[in-house]
Amino acid sequence: MGTLSLKRLTAADIMATDVVTIEPSDSLRDAMTLMTENHVTGLPVIDHKGRCVGLISATDILNYEQDHSEETEEANEAMTRYYNPESQRWESVRVTSFALEEFADVPVSDVMTRELVSVSPETPVTDVAEKIVELDIHRALVLDEGQRLMGIVSAIDFARLVAAPPPQ
């Protein structure tokens, strides 16, 4: 794909629209289940008015568990490693089955990121890519003026764009 045609593409042209979402009152267990079943690492959080009010990621949940497992009586020094797609690094985290059970019923709203990184559907893909690289994040939400989710542009969408065969 030529540079000229790439500059004409917008977020709406490459965004994923079949986005799995979650509600603020759903539990971390619900979030983990949805992420696992749908092979995603983050979920937009949608309120009862249909507005995107946050984002919960696997990293958010692991960090929450790690921060709070030290407060549990049965926390131990067992560590596990996981690949953090947002930082693109392997990281270590303390994970205890006791803590995961204890925190599984915590509402998503207690852990989600509220500072949304978003673009409009008309944002050129080059600007979306710059924002993702500049902020060192994995995804940008595509929101309309009312904060309603229209889609997500993630690193995989850019990989698909580059891997797509050139138009004939």
Key attributes of the depicted protein:
168 residues; alpha+beta; CBS-domain; three-stranded mixed beta sheet; two-stranded antiparallel ribbon; 7 helices; 7 strands; 36% helix
Describe the protein.
- With 168 residues, the chain is α+β, with helices and mostly antiparallel strands.
- It has one domain (3-163): CBS-domain (Roll), CATH 3.10.580.
- Helix content is 36%, strand content 21%.
- The chain contains seven helices and seven strands; from the N terminus they run αααββαββαβαββα.
- The protein has a three-stranded mixed sheet with strand order 5-6-7. Strands 1-2 form a two-stranded antiparallel sheet. Strands 3-4 form a two-stranded antiparallel ribbon.
- α6 links the parallel β5 (118-119) and β6 (139-143).
- The protein is globular, with a radius of gyration of 18 Å.
- The model has no long low-confidence stretch (mean pLDDT 84).
Write the layout of secondary structure elements.
Layout: H1 3-8, H2 11-14, H3 28-38, E1 42-46, E2 52-57, H4 58-69, E3 79-84, E4 89-94, H5 97-103, E5 118-119, H6 125-135, E6 139-143, E7 149-154, H7 155-163
Enter the CATH topology name. CBS-domain
Mean pLDDT: 84
**SSE arrangement, N to C:** HHHEEHEEHEHEEH
Specify the overall morphology. Answer: globular
What's the CATH architecture name? Roll
Strand content: 15-25%
Helix residue percentage: 25-40%
Q: Give the number of DSSP strands.
A: 7
CATH class: Alpha Beta
The main β sheet shows up as: 3 strands, mixed
Per DSSP, the total helix count is 7
Radius of gyration, rounded? 18 Å
Pick out the low-confidence regions: none
For the largest beta sheet, what order do the strands appear in spatially?
5-6-7
Please give the alpha-carbon distance between the first and last residues.
10 Å
Structural class: alpha+beta
Oligomer: single chain
Q: Look at the structure and name the CATH superfamily.
A: CBS-domain
